Amino acid sequence: MSELSRDALLAIVRRVWEERDPVPEDLVARMQATAAIAASDLDLELMVLVERSTELVGARGTTAYTLRFVHGDTDLLLRIAVDGDRSRVDGWVVPPEPMTIRALPGAEPDTHDAVVTESGRFELTDLPVGLMRLRLEPHDTSRAAFATPTFEI
């Protein structure tokens, strides 16, 4: 048996990789949506993802998980429930402060808005499944708006 050249071996690995683990069809569109959000003229400051945990799957096929983001002294906890192709986000901002939360879905041009209650709670319903970013806009104009990194629902 003869030894394969480096290029021949890499060609075999590439062919097997392309056949067994192809690039997802929607990857380019998802990356373009993410790049468009990142390149927008909105002066966004990213939050740091601190924690992601998964909860049990519901009896009717809904899944739910939690995400936690921290930005400076602001803590954002999200509970995301997915049912088919739509989702719901229940969130809490700590410490509570008056602000508007805008969901910026990657695939849809529409935004979904919610206002934080006195207890720091908000909810966003009927959101699409896919890439998402939340923009937090404090009502105190001396505080700059900021956003979560893009995450996938």
Q: Could you please describe the fold and organization of this structure?
A:
The protein is of the alpha+beta class and 153 residues long. The protein has 2 helices and 10 strands; from the N terminus they run ααββββββββββ. It has a 5-stranded antiparallel sheet, with no helix packed on it. A hairpin with a 7-residue loop joins strand 8 and strand 9. The protein is elongated and about 75 Å long. The N and C termini lie far apart (50 Å). About 3% of the residues have low confidence.
Low-confidence stretches: 41-45
Kindly state the percentage of residues in helix. 10-25%
Q: In whole angstroms, how far apart are the ends?
A: 50 Å
Average pLDDT, rounded to a whole number, is 81
Which class do the helix and strand fractions yield? Answer: alpha+beta
Q: What does the radius of gyration come to?
A: 20 Å
Sequence of strands across the biggest β-sheet? 1-2-3-4-7
How large is the count of helical segments?
A: 2
Number of strands: 10
Write down the secondary-structure element order.
HHEEEEEEEEEE
Shape summary: elongated
- The amount of beta strand, in percent, is 35-45%
Note the main sheet. 5 strands, antiparallel
How is this structure best summarized?
By secondary structure, the chain is of the alpha+beta class. It is built from two helices and ten strands. The chain has a five-stranded antiparallel β-sheet with strand order 1-2-3-4-7, with no helix packed on it. Strands 5, 6, 8, 9 and 10 form a five-stranded antiparallel β-sheet that branches.
